[in-house]
Each structure stands twice: as C-alpha cells, then as structure tokens.
C-alpha cells in the first residue's frame, strides 16, 4: 500500500521543503499539502526533485482566515476572489506537476450557494483541464467545520452531476465520511469511479489510524480489494513529534 504524507498536519512545524525531506526519510511514497503558498516554489520544487517524491495535491486558498473563512467557491458575491484562488492554485500546481487541486467551498448554505459553487467549479475544471489536472471537492464533517457548504458524499455527487466535467472528483476522506455517514466500506466501493483521492485519520480524534472507532486494517484491505493503488493520504494530527507517531506505517500499512 502506497502512502502520501499530508504535510498540512505531518511535520507541520517545519518549512515545506524540510517536511518533504522528512516524509522521504520516513518512507512515504508521496506528499500532499494544504496551503503551500507562503513557500518559495523553487525551494519546494528542489525538495521534490531531491527526494523524488511527487506532490499529489494542494488546496485553494481559504480566504480571510482572520474572520474564519474556509474557502470561497460557494460564497455568493465572492466569485472574483474564488477564481483568483483557483488561478493561484493552478499556477502553483502547474509549476510542481501537482495533479489534484481541492477547491474549497466555504461556509454557505442554500440554492444560490450551490449554483455559485457549480459555476466556480466549471471555471476550475476547464482551466485545470488545460494542464491535465483534476479538481477535487471534499465533504467536511460538521463537528470540525459547522456551516461548511459540502458535508456529505451524496451532496458531492449532486455537485459532480451538475458540473458535468470529467475532471471533477471526490476527495474521499475516511475521517469525514465516518463522522457524517458511516458505512465507509460500502461507500468506497460504490463511489470508486468518482474518487480522485483517499485520505484517512482515526475517528473521532483525527489521530494516528491505529486507534478509534474505524478499523483501518479492514478499510485498507477493502481499498486494496478494489484495486485502488494510488497513495492514500495520511492526514492526521500527531499528538507530538511526527516521527514518533509513525508506528502505524509498519503495523497497518506495511
Ligand atoms: O480534511 C481536511 O480537512 C483537508 O483534506 C482539507 O483539505 C482542508 O480542510
Ligand atoms: Mg481531508
């Protein structure tokens, strides 16, 4: 099983180039990140070249985090900002050969927000397609992100249908899906054609995957059985030093 280190949470105390080197030393096959924009692209690119690790994904900018924004693409009236964030993400990703961009919806509700999200995603998909990239949308759980626009895989499928572009896929984060819906094994199977990337963490604490209510020994077996061989994103919050948290790599994913 191949693994991608999510550097938004793992080695998050280090500059991104150093975190990429740490992921390589720990035996990860790939990396992914959240919001890499403060880091110099050349330095990130050099770290990727030195380690040989691909960067699988990054997120669009959240907007003004000082007022709690968590994405812009479903916010009516913020289309220009949403599209600037999409352009920024595509440019950064293109420079690093990153194949997936997670377009963040933000805090919004209702039909107008849905229509706004659809239009911004069409814009994102059409621009990403010119670089061979996939756009991801990710349902987030309502404990961590109350009021976030996209909360379930069912809603994600409706969005995918309404956007109607082949390069729009679901980020299936087992942690969020378990908290909002459960039935993770069946959902993985049923949604496989729509899944662009899979992430994991323990439930409910978002810690290492060898604890909690979701049995990842089983979930990883299910994923293998689906012949899904892309790296799975380790997107958990280590309780201390990241290197000290990696025992699960041998016991669960070895
Ligand atoms: O699950 C998450 O929180 C992330 O995958 C993300 O992209 C940021 O919300
Ligand atoms: Mg996630």
From TrEMBL:
Residue ranges of every copy of the Xylose isomerase-like TIM barrel domain listed in the record: 21-251
Name of the top EC class for this enzyme: isomerase
Keyword vocabulary terms for this entry: Isomerase, Pyruvate
Taxonomy, superkingdom: Bacteria
E.C. number(s) listed in UniProt: 5.3.1.22
Any matching Pfam family: AP_endonuc_2
Active site: 138 (proton donor/acceptor), 235 (proton donor/acceptor)
Biological process according to GO: glyoxylate metabolic process
GO molecular function: hydroxypyruvate isomerase activity
Family, similarity comment: Belongs to the hyi family.
Protein name: Hydroxypyruvate isomerase
Organism: Pacificibacter marinus
Gene: hyi
């Amino acid at each position: 099983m191949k693994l991608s280190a999510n550097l938004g949470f793992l080695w998050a105390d280090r500059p991104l180039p150093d975190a990429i080197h740490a992921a390589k030393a720990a035996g990860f096959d790939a990396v992914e990140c959240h919001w890499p924009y403060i880091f110099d692209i050349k330095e990130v690119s050099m770290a990727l070249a030195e380690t040989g690790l691909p960067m699988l994904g990054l997120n669009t900018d959240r907007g003004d985090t000082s007022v709690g924004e968590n994405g812009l693409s479903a916010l009516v009236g913020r289309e220009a900002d949403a599209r600037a964030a999409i352009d920024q993400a595509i440019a950064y990703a293109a420079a690093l050969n990153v194949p997936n961009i997670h377009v963040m919806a933000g805090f919004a509700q209702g039909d107008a927000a849905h229509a706004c999200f659809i239009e911004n995603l069409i814009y994102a998909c059409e621009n990403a397609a010119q670089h061979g990239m996939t756009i991801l949308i990710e349902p987030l759980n309502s404990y961590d992100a109350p009021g976030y626009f996209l909360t379930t895989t069912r809603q994600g499928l409706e969005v995918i249908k309404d956007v109607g572009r082949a390069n729009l896929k679901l980020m299936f984060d087992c942690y969020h899906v378990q908290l909002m819906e459960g039935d993770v094994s069946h959902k993985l199977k049923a949604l496989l054609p729509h899944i662009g990337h899979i992430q994991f963490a323990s439930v409910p604490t978002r810690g290492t995957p060898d604890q909690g209510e979701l049995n990842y020994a089983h979930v990883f077996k299910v994923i293998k059985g689906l012949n899904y061989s892309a790296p799975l994103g380790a997107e958990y919050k280590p309780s201390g030093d990241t290197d000290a948290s990696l025992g699960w790599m041998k016991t669960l994913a070895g």
